[in-house]
Amino acid sequence: MIRVVLPTHLRTLAKVDGELKLEVEGLVTQRSVLDALEAKYPALRGTIRDHVTRERRPFIRFFACEEDLSHESPDAPLPDAVAKGAEPFLVVGAIAGG
């Protein structure tokens, strides 16, 4: 089981509370986790990744094991602690402004 933590506005959109648990087939990567997330919660399609390019939206960041994974390849394996469910995969809404 992969643990996923979403920001409040995405949890509201998906109609869930707290941390999510997902089954991911095969290699655990950003792409496979997000594919499983969007399959289970279709309301999230297009909110984290662009509908067409499937690239991360500009104000969304990904973290795991205290590391920013936002600029890693979407097909790179996530840390073992995430794959084993010991640590969550965090989807964070970035804040901009001045």
Overview features:
single chain; 98 residues; alpha+beta; Ubiquitin-like (UB roll)
Could you walk me through the main structural features you see in this protein, from its secondary elements to its overall organization?
- There is one protein chain.
- 22% of the residues lie in helices and 19% in strands.
- The protein has 98 residues and is of the alpha+beta class.
- It has a single domain, classed as Beta-grasp domain (Ubiquitin-like (UB roll), Roll).
- The chain has a 5-stranded mixed β-sheet, with helices on one face.
- It starts with a strand and ends in a 5-residue tail after the last strand.
- The mean pLDDT is 95.
- Classified in CATH, the superfamily is Beta-grasp domain
The backbone outline, from C-alpha atoms, is: globular
Query: For the residues shown, what is the average pLDDT?
Result: 95
Strands side by side in the biggest sheet: 2-1-5-3-4
For the biggest sheet, the summary is: 5 strands, mixed
